Amino acid sequence: MLDFLGDLERTHLCGALRVSDSGRKAVLMGWVNRRRDLGNLLFIDIRDRTGVTQIVFDEESNPRLHEKARQLRNEYVIAVIGTVMKRDGKTINKNIATGEVELVAQELRILNESKQPPFLPSETVLPNEEMRLKYRYIDLRREAMQRNILLRHSLAIAIRNNLSAQGFFEIETPFMTRSTPEGARDYLVPSRVQPGSFYALPQSPQLFKQILMISGFDKYFQIVRCFRDEDLRADRQPEFTQIDLEMSYARPERVWEVVEEFLTAAFKAAGHDIKTPFPRMTYDEAIRRYGSDKPDLRLPAMTDLGDAFAKEDLAALGLSPKLPIVALRIPKVGELSRKERDDIKPLFNGKGRAKVFEDFKRLEKSFPQAAARVRERCGAASDDLIVLVAGADAAAGSKSGGDGKPEATPHDHAVYTAAGLLRLGLAQKYAERHRAFERTGDPARDFRFLWVTDFPMFEYDEEGQRWAAAHHPFTSPHEQDLEKLESDPGAVRALAYDTVLNGTELGSGSIRIHRQDIQRRIFRALGMTEEEARQRFGFFLEALEYGTPPHGGIALGLDRIVMIIAGAESLREVIPFPKTARAVDLMVDAPTPVSEAQLKELGIMIRRG
RNA sequence: GGGGACGUAGUUCAGUUGGUUAGAACGCUGCCCUGUCACGGCAGAGGCCGCGGGUUCGAGUCCCGUCGUCCCCGCCA
Question: pTM value?
Answer without folding.
Answer: 0.92
